[in-house]
Each structure stands twice: as C-alpha cells, then as structure tokens.
Amino acid sequence: ADPAQDDYVAWLVRRGFDAYEPHGARGEMYYIPQISSLPAEAHPSQWVGDASRRFIRRAARGRRPWCLFSSFIHPHPPFAPPKPWHKLYRAPGMPLPHVPAGSAALQTWINRLQNRYKYRDRGLDLNLLRQMKAYYYASISFVDFQVGRILDALETTEQLDRTLILFVSDHGEMLGDFNCFGKRSMHDASVRVPLIVRQPARYPAGAMCRTAVSLVDVYPSLLAAGGIEPPAGGLDGVDLATLARRRATGRVVFSQFSQGPTGIYLAASADWKYVWSAGDGREFLFDRRHDPGEADNLAASPRGGDAKAALREALLTHLKSCGRSEAFTERNGRLRWRRYARVDETYLNDPDARLLVQDYPLYPTRLPGYTD
After folding, report:
1. What's residue 245's pLDDT?
2. Measured by CB atoms within 10 angstroms of the end CB, which terminus of the chain is less buried, N or C?
3. pLDDT number for residue 359
4. Which residues pair with 167 in a beta bridge?
C-alpha cells in the first residue's frame, strides 16, 4: 500500500480513494469473503483492464510490434469482488468442496501449514465455504469482463486476428478441496491452471489438446509467434503451436515447491501424475484419466507400478539435469530420492501457533480514541 512503489496505489491516492488494503483485508480476514472497499470503477481488476485498453489503442497508432502483459491479482484471496458483482453468485447455489474419503492421507506438510496460518484448521463452516466460492466465482467473472474489454479493444483497433493471445494463470486455489486451502499443493486444484491460446494463423480454432504443457512453454511460444530465434543455449519449454499440431500425449512436465528437506516435486503427463514430498517422505501417484478427482493414491499399488517408475525416473533425471543435487542421491548410475527428517509439525499441538497477521505500516492508526 505504498504509492511510491505501486502505480495502482498512487492512482488511488491521486483520486481520493482509500488506498489501504485495496485488494482486500488479509491476515485474520484472508479467507473471509468480503466486498471490496472500492467501487467497481476503481477496483484493481478494472484498473488493469483500463490500462490494457489504453496501451492497445496507443500501440495501434504505431508501427512497431508490441507485447502486453496484463496481470490480474484477483481472484487471489481475499475474495473481494466489487458491488454489484458480489451478488452475481449466491452461496446456496455453490457446490461444496471436493473432499474424498481419506483426504487427510492425501495431504502433505504444506497443506497443514497453510490451513493453520490461513485460520482454516479449527473446524469448517460449510455455508461459509459456499459463500467463499460464490465470491471467488464473482472475482473471476469480473476479471472475465475485463478480458472481454481487452479483446474488444483489439477488435476495434483491427489487431485481433494478428495478435497472439495467451490466457494463463500462475496457480489455482484449493478452496476447501481435500479440506485444504491456498496454493503450493500439487493437487490439480492448486497446480493445474488454464491455458488458452488464440492466433488464427498458427492455432486451429476451438481445438483442445491433451498434451501436458507448462508455463515454461509460454516464452518459446511468444518467440515463435514473433519469428524470433531462441537463445543459443536453448529453452526448457517448446512452442505451444508445435505441441498443438503434434498432440504428443506422452510428454512429461515438471513442477517444484521449495527444496531440500521441504521440497515437493511433481512429474505429470496427460494420463498420470507423480509427486514426491521430501518433508513427508512420501510418494503420491494419481491416474489422471480414470481418477481426475485424485481420490486414490496408487503409489503403493501394483496397478500404477510402471507409471510410477517411469515418472519418478523422468523427474529425478530432470532434477539432475538442473543440478538440484539436494533432491537426490546417485549410486552406480541409479538415482534415488535423498532422504530427510520429516518436517517438524509439533506446532499443530498449539492451536495459536503460526497464525498469520498482516498489517501495513503506512496505514494511519494513531487516531484519537483508537490508540489513546
């Protein structure tokens, strides 16, 4: 909330809006659905939409190629849509979270830690969870409205069909699935993100591709669209247009959270997902085709033996190629997971341990009657 470091906050200050916690109140309120303190025309999602449209109109008057990165913070928690968007979805119409039997056994140490510091591990109010989802959906719809405005700007400036459009996200949200909240998890609710591409000259309209892709594929795709050669050393990702044409469903992509004793690592293909959590000393294996809800961990089942071995080897080999020696050991050419002590979770015995408080020093709290 510092106008010297944040263009949006500076814009709010210049126009007389309350610039404290413009994205919603965090800390104890982080997972409490709340109406934005700002009107729709000053909401951060609207500000990004407005700035994007101005850029597109200005770029249309020039002759140079351009690149625009429109980054929407919402629907990141706290879920704070503006009026009247907060009434777009109603709690009674929202589905309850996906909580399969045995969900506790499908969690890792980071799920339990997030539940604690997000104030979500002292019992669950199902109606509150439905209201949370309603505001989450409303926040998404308000972003969707802004995306439509950006596309309209491209169309009215006659740039739509010659512009590569990539719609992606950096992470998902557990939102109560598996009795968990937040990101960082390797469950699909957290790690799987939308990826929509439009460029009529290079991508077939309306096509869906089952090939596993990753955000590392975004940069190579931008280079290819602009006719730019990749760096001499190569890139980790590949051009998405190439993948869309080949439909290489056997491709494996990787993800990692943290490292060493707290590292969580993922390898996923179109059909299978393998996860290793060093802090739990546990493997997870999910059949993505027959168990999209990830209710059945097949890591110890002979049914997934071949898939587990192949993905584990691919993941360890990838980590070795990246020089991540803290993740593995190698003996006689064979790679294995490096073993660590389990993450210390004794804090769970104290219900107030690790609770998060987020306050901002710029907010004026030295007020008569407030601090006197």
Report:
1. 85
2. C
3. 80
4. 196
Question: 88: which residues sit within 8 A by CB, 6+ positions away?
Answer: 81, 137, 138, 141
Residue 316 CB contacts under 8 Å (≥ 6 apart), including other chains: 327, 328, 335, 336, 337
Give CA–CA dist 232/239, Å, rounded.
16
| Per-residue pLDDT tens over the stretch 7-31 | 999 999 999 998 989 999 988 999 9
Question: What does the block give as tokens for 340?
Answer: 């660590």
- Under 8 Å CB-to-CB from 140, ≥6 apart: which residues? 74, 75
Are the C-beta atoms of 252 and 265 separated by less than 8 Å?
no
pLDDT confidence of residue 52 = 98
Kindly state the helix (H) or strand (E) to which residue 243 belongs, with its residue range.
Answer: helix 240-246
**SS3 at position 93:** helix
Q: Quote the percentage of the chain above a pLDDT of 70.
A: 99
Supply the pLDDT for residue 61. 95
Nearest in space to 40 (alpha carbons), one of 135, 142, 153: 142
Name the CATH topology of 252-360: Arylsulfatase, C-terminal domain (3.30.1120)
In sign, the C-alpha dihedral spanning 163, 215, 26, 80 is: positive
Q: Which residues of the chain have pLDDT under 50?
A: none
Q: What is the DSSP string of 175-220?
A: TTGGG--SS---SHHHH---EEEE-TTTS-TT----S---GGGHHH
Q: What angle do CA 133, 136, 141 make, to 5 degrees?
A: 125
DSSP per position, 109-177 = HHHHHHHHHTT-SS---HHHHHHHHHHHHHHHHHHHHHHHHHHHHHHHTT-GGGS-EEEE-S----TTG
Contacts of 223 (CB under 8 A, 6+ apart): 229, 230, 239
- Tokens 């691919």, residue located: 314
Does this model's pTM top 0.85? My answer is yes
C-alpha pair distances (Å), 334 with each of 260, 281, 331, 337: 19, 19, 5, 10
State the span(s) of the chain assigned CATH 3.40.720.10: 1-198
Please name the CATH architecture into which domain 1-198 falls. 3-Layer(aba) Sandwich (3.40)
